[in-house]
Amino acid sequence: GEIQARRSSELGLERGGKITEIFVAEGDRVSRGDPLARLDTRNLEAKQRQLQAQRDRALAQLEQLQTGPRQEDIAAARARVRNVKEELALLKTQRSRREFLYSEGAISQEQRDEFASREQALQARLEEAQSQLQELLSGTRPEEIAAQQATVKEIEASLEDVEITLDKSVLTAPFN
C-alpha cells in the first residue's frame, strides 16, 4: 500500500527574515494554530519597547495637560507680579525725586531720561509677568489637549502595527 497525506499545504510567512526557531520535526502531529516556526523578531521587540515608552511618556504629558498648572507655579507667578509691582513703585518714587532734582538743575537730562527708560522697561516686565500668570490661571488650551490625544493615538497605532508584524512572524499550522 501507499500512504498519502489527506491534506497538504504550501506554507510561508507573510514577511521575510531569518528563521530562528523550528518547533516541529517532520512527521510530528500538530493541531490547527500550533506554532511551526518563528522568524527573528529582536528588532521588532526593540521597536515595540520603544513605542511603549513613547506611549507612556505621551500619556503622562496628556495627564499633565489635563490636570493643568500646579498651584506652586501659580503662586510663583503671583509672587513675580507682586515683586515687579513693588520694584515699579520704588522706581516711580525715585523718578519723581529725579524730576525734582532735574528742575533744580542738580542732575542732567540724561540722568532723568535714564530713570524714565528703566520705568518703561519695568512696566513691560510687569505686563509680561501678568500675562504669564493669566496663562497659568486660564489652564491648558483644549487644542493642546486634543493634539496630545492625537499623539497618543498615533503611537498606539504604530504599536498595534508592530504587534501585527510580530504575530506574522510565527508560522502556524493551518489545520490538524
Please describe the structure with a list of short key phrases separated by commas or semicolons.
single chain
Across the major sheet, the strand order is 1-2-3
Q: What general outline do the C-alpha atoms trace?
A: rod-shaped
Task: Tell me the series of helices and strands, N- to C-terminal.
Answer: EEHHHHE
Low confidence ranges: none
Tell me the distance between the termini: 23 Å
Beta-strand percentage? 5-15%
Count of DSSP strands: 3
* Quaternary structure classification: single chain
Description:
This protein has 176 residues and is mainly alpha-helical. 65% of the residues lie in helices and 7% in strands. The chain has four helices and three strands. The chain has helices at 42-67, 71-103, 109-138, 142-167, and strands at residues 19-22, 35-39, 170-172. It has a three-stranded antiparallel sheet with strand order 1-2-3, with no helix packed on it. Helix 1 (42-67) packs antiparallel against helix 4 and helix 2 (71-103) packs antiparallel against helix 3. The longest helix has 33 residues, at 71-103.
Summarize the structure in short.
This protein has 176 residues and is mainly α.
Which SSEs are present, and which pair or pack?
Blueprint: E1 19-22, E2 35-39, H1 42-67, H2 71-103, H3 109-138, H4 142-167, E3 170-172
Antiparallel strand pairs: 1-2, 2-3
Helix pairs in contact: 1-4, 2-3
